[in-house]
Amino acid sequence: MLPRQRLHLILDPDVALPAAQRFRALQLALILVGIGCTLVDSIPGIDHQLQMGVELSIAVVGLAFAFEYALRLWCAPDLPRLAWLQPNSARWRWALSPAGVVDMLAILPVTGALTWGMILPPDFAAVMVLLFMLKLSAHTPGARLIGRVIYNERRTLLVVLIMFGVVLMAAATLAHIAERTHQPEAFGSIPQALWWAVATLTTTGYGDVVPVTAFGRIVAGFVMISGIGVLALLAGILATGFSEEVKRRDFLRIWELVACVPLFSGIGAQAIADVVARLRARYYPAGAVVVRRGAPGDSMFFIATGEVEVRLNPNSVVLSEGMFFGEMALLDRRPRSADIVTLTPCTMLILNMPDFFQLAGQHPALAQAIADEAEKRRGGA
Ligand code: CMP
Prior knowledge:
about 65% helix; 15 helices; four-stranded antiparallel sheet; alpha+beta
């Protein structure tokens, strides 16, 4: 893998590589330091020394983000959605994308301040907090997920928003009719009554404007109940959308990993879908004990990436990408026959015992291939 491609993976908020996780932790720490310092900087009349210290820290955070911006710009041609462009065009595209603009904005005040000396604009702290928060939300691993869920559910969300608008307008109009003579300053026109309708329908209820007539109060009751209904509907749509999107992503990720296991090639699309639905991916660092001799066995493992060592007294065998282990305990209903330790960082696909037997019943050819390999191992052990 080229250095730029590796760096691109490290910068990707959705990649689970240890280096990417370390980078995200560092980025989060810097953002939090930046926010903390800008909050302190916003306190009027703080000690001059302290102010210099926090502004220096903000400048260091800003410089670190400027460096990150340069790296992201350099790696832009490796973004899958820009891979078809010439490298420099891809970099322009990224710089003008929402993520590129947010990253640029997060470094502008600091680089500007550093260029023009350490005199920071009066509302510097407030602006920096907003920009750091924007950067935080743009690079959290879930940010793309939220965007995707909203995109997937856009039609249903639109229907609910239209419903919301209809109830809001009806509430404002009825409240205007009921209250305009009693409270002309708050309900004298429909736009004026809209303020009360929004505060009531969203269940905020500031209480600065309240209906006083009987009809106005009946309308208010309906609006309150409708508000709860609309909010519950929105929460339900988003929650279902999230859970479906997470399931879909896991399915696709496992599907890709399953392609690394030759045992599953040629078993047909339906069988692969059955297998994928039952597997769980798990990452192990190098040197991790995956299976311990004598322990009860409740699952088997397929190696999607990496290598493990099967420690059989006195020999040992190395199993690599695409191979499997842990089948004997399931087939023989006996404790584990060997210790298994990862030699390199590994991604395993794990199949639990009930799923193993269900799958074996549905796809006898697959079960036979696993049993044949176990038989060979028993002979060789
Ligand atoms: P299990 O007994 O569940 O746990 C230890 C695993 O080591 C075992 O299943 C096999 O998958 C694997 N194993 C045992 N003997 C050998 C061997 N000779 N060659 C490769 N793998 C083995």
